[in-house]
Write a structure and sequence with these properties.
Blueprint: E1 2-5, H1 23-30, E2 34-37, H2 39-42, E3 52-55, H3 59-63, E4 68-71, H4 78-95, E5 99-102, E6 113-115, E7 123-125, H5 129-136, E8 141-143, H6 144-153
Parallel strand pairs: 1-2, 1-5, 5-8
Antiparallel strand pairs: 3-4, 6-7
Helix pairs in contact: 4-5
Protein name: Purine-nucleoside phosphorylase
InterPro entries: 2-thiour_desulf
């Protein structure tokens, strides 16, 4: 079973109440080849919500207590991000997920890039909190672009 970010399947769960629909990913969900997950919603955050970024490192640093996830107005949402990551891990384990496709650049789901923590639109190499935890636990975590590339190379 493939686990995918809910926003990629068309659910309006992003911080600003929108989605990032990819029809191919939605089709996998419709055909029951994939299941959706949104770590930020699982962690207790509402939609819409303020944008948040990792301050002081990456998702690994958040998990290790060396960095925080903070909203644009300065509210610490680290606890919600960590809670959502662990609930996503639990779901992946329950499903026996063979691959996890997460929304790139997200402070939860980014698997190669995240925003730099300055709310200026710049990105850095790194994992979001959920992506970092899932990778630590041995799951294959890729971005939507990597997934589509993989589909068309197969």
């Amino acid at each position: 079973m493939i686990l995918v970010s809910s926003c990629l399947a068309g659910l309006e769960v992003r911080y600003n109440g929108t989605h990032c629909l990819d029809e191919r990913i939605k089709e996998l969900v419709t055909n029951k080849e994939a299941t959706m997950i949104c770590p930020e919603i699982l962690g207790g955050l509402a939609t819409p919500r303020e944008p948040a970024e990792i301050i002081g490192g990456s998702g690994e640093d958040v998990l290790d207590g060396r960095a925080k996830v903070v909203s644009q107005s300065g509210h610490d949402v680290t606890e919600e991000f960590i809670k959502g990551a662990y609930l996503a891990l639990e779901r992946a384990q329950q499903l026996g997920a063979t691959m996890i496709v997460l929304k790139e650049n997200s402070p939860s789901c980014g698997s190669t890039n995240i925003y730099n923590g300055h709310f200026n639109g710049e990105k850095i190499a790194g994992n979001g909190v959920t992506a970092a935890l899932l990778k630590r636990k041995g799951f294959e975590v890729i971005s939507e672009k990597q997934f589509i590339d993989k589909l068309f190379k197969a």
